[in-house]
Specification:
Aspartate Aminotransferase, domain 1; binds pyridoxal-5'-phosphate; 5-stranded mixed beta sheet; 2 domains; about 475 residues; alpha/beta; 3-stranded antiparallel beta sheet; 17 helices; Aspartate Aminotransferase, domain 2
Length: about 475
Amino acid sequence: MTNIESRHSNILDHPYSSGPEPFKIKMVESIQLINREEREAALKRAGLNLFNLPSDHVFIDLLTDSGTGAMSDEQWSSMMKGDESYAGSPSFFRLQSAIQDIMGFPFILPTHQGRAAENVLHSTMIKEGDVIPGNSHFDTTKAHIELRHAKAVDCTIDECFDPVLDYPFKGNVDIDKLKKVVGETDNSKIPFVLITVTNNSGGGQPVSLANIREVSEFCKSEGLQLFIDAARFAENAWFIKHREVGQENRDIREIIREVFSYADGATMSAKKDAIVNMGGFIALRDEKLYEDCSSYSILFEGYLTYGGMTGRDVEALATGLYEGTEEDYLTSRIGRVRAFGDALHEAGVPTIRPPGGHAIYVDAKRFLPHIDQEQFPAQALTCELYLEAGVRGVEIGTVLNDRDPETGKNRPPALELMRLAIPRRVYTDNHLAYVKDAIVRLYERRDSIKGLRFSYEPGVLRHFRARFEWVE
Ligand SMILES: *Cc1c(COP(=O)(O)O)cnc(C)c1O
């Protein structure tokens, strides 16, 4: 068998449909579509950068799924029970017990969001010259690694970088690449191996249980620690259940427990699968490491039992961990994202296949082949989608990738994408059908879309603050 065939041998071809949402709506928030002229003026004021738009000028906001979910009635009632004691709050103990119950880790440190968890863990574990192999590290993770003059090495399987290949676990770690990196590096320079589930930078693509187990066995044989960047651990577990042979009859929570049983710890951005607007934590197995992290936690985040969060936020997070790991909810969410992606695909719009768990990625290189990557086709497409329909997506392409610090040249990435991230429990199929129709209209008149150039380019993190003008 070739590598690809053997990777395919554990695939379950399990059809799934979204069905109705397993909730009804108790409170609504008005949104309004300003007219085309007003959108043109707003986008011009924003310098053709959608980060600069006031969000009340956006009709449907698909900028991110981070912290944008709708909390449930249970979560709002939890907030009333939040205890604001500086030390020893019962809300902390409730969170600790939820994390023990769902993930199986005995030690936890709350933090104000995911990158704060990274900051604390990396301050404790990473030294200059270290190497952290993984599957497409998330931007903040990579930035925190590089801040400490260490290196993040991407060992994702090659299938991930083929936008049309319909492969079920495109987020997997390539064991051969991992073995090569470890073989070339002194093990004392590898503080941990990191698996991100789902693989956000790789398109929200899942990692299989077999792959996590194999990476864990390899790490154990080398005496290396394995950590999980757990932002979308529940969506990943749902994909394991529905795509991996032998997993189809298991409970989602059982799969989650098994996934984390292979790891020494995890960092979590609770703004994703725990469906809160702000929050995060570190979960650990080893008491000594917990002690070591505690000092940084107190320094950066606050006392150990609140870590940058209010008691009410801690309480809502504990409740959200249970809700975010319910199968009916996950089936509805992931099925909805999939149906949106399939509708675009069937209309001929080029997207990354198969759809990931939290977002649909439109392939701007194939959508706008007449625009050179130096004229930012994905940024141009996000501007056009806003003008067309008041919808906000985000560029994941040449602008985001910055310039090469050595040559000063743009670094056009292999994939030039417009990401449409779907907030949890916020938009209905009608909203997504409206977005789809707008993209199909753009696709029909794609030849009329022009490229962009900078009118202002800041030195660092230009994605957030750059301004553009159309190239005539
Ligand atoms: C969002 C995210 C983070 C960072 O979390 P924040 O809460 O935004 O600080 C880290 N890793 C992954 C995979 C993420 O999606």
